[in-house]
Amino acid sequence: MAEGQIVAGLLAPHPPHLVYAENPPQNEPNSEGGWEQLRWGYERLRKSLEDVDYDCIVILSPHWQTYVGTHFLGLERFESLSVDPIFPNLFRFKYDVTVDVELSKAIHDQAKDDGLAVKMMENQDFRIDYGTITSCHMIRPEWDKPIVSISSNRGHAYYSVEVMQEMMIQLGKATRKAILESGKKCVIVASNSLSHRHFTTESEVPEDMSVEHISSHAMHLWDMRMIELMRSGKSQQIVNEMPEFVEQAIAESDGGALTWMLSALDMPDEPAILHGYGTIIGTGNAIMEWPSRNWRENS
Ligand SMILES: [Fe+2]
């Protein structure tokens, strides 16, 4: 069997506003658009992946929160209605998700062998979080690729950013090893915003772009710093600065997704591509791609 490959790593933020603004048939509410800068960014990302052959999307979302270890979806199909708890007016999405249980179990088993606390989620009534659904929808609205969905074990909330990162680096290594051994080609996705200080009120028309902007200058500076580090291939520096970033920018990378993804890519020195940046209710969001398929064999 040929060795598997991570064909791309992505930073793919998941505010439900993006799906709301796209008006796909699966989502109940209707919009007049909005957040075009980011939606055009996702369009560029989809174009970049258009001719790339891959089998599966492996995603870690901070909105599937598990407090005892890392969990993995363990059943072939999940079908239900996902309602955003904060924005039920924007996101009521009928989903039908196929899971690559074989790969999910392989990553689970590797992580377990490496000493991490893990569990397969095998409750058919389990409702998939809106973060996973939004990022997957914006990356691949056809929903024709199976996914592996990984929970956020909230190491930051329980312990500290440092402990969270140690666990996510280990989980990233396990993910990489399992993918290479599986013979499959995968896109791996960190589903999170950058700075995450958001407005506490919503305008009358949610998609009114005249009121959309970054919540503060400090948040803007942090977002630009992180994007520049990504664009110049300074993965290790991102990990090193993560404690300050999370504390000062209330960054959503506190869920571990970004550290996990960079670790699964083996802390790349290669630059990431910026497909788009924009704010959503004041939070900073970048759509980035690490095109590892072009770097070296079996990256
Ligand atoms: Fe979020």
Write the layout of secondary structure elements.
Layout: E1 5-11, H1 17-22, H2 36-49, E2 56-65, E3 70-73, E4 77-83, E5 92-98, H3 101-113, E6 118-121, H4 130-139, E7 147-152, H5 155-158, H6 161-182, E8 185-190, H7 217-231, H8 235-249, H9 257-264, E9 273-280, E10 283-290
Parallel strand pairs: 1-8, 2-7, 2-8, 3-6
Antiparallel strand pairs: 1-10, 4-5, 9-10
Bound molecules: fe (ii) ion.
Residues 14, 62-63, 131, 252 line the site of fe (ii) ion (FE2).
Keywords:
single chain; about 300 residues; alpha/beta; two-stranded parallel sheet; binds fe (ii) ion
Describe the structure in your own words.
The chain is α/β, with parallel strands linked by helices and 299 residues long. The protein has a single domain (5-293), classed as 3-Layer(aba) Sandwich (Protocatechuate 4,5-dioxygenase, Chain B). The protein has helices at residues 17-22, 36-49, 101-113, 130-139, 155-158, 161-182, 217-231, 235-249, 257-264; strands spanning 5-11, 56-65, 70-73, 77-83, 92-98, 118-121, 147-152, 185-190, 273-280, 283-290. The protein has a 6-stranded mixed β-sheet with strand order 7-2-8-1-10-9, sandwiched between helices. The chain has a two-stranded parallel sheet with strand order 3-6. The chain has a two-stranded antiparallel ribbon with strand order 4-5. The longest helix has 22 residues, at 161-182. Bound molecules: fe (ii) ion. Residues 14, 62-63, 131, 252 line the site of fe (ii) ion.
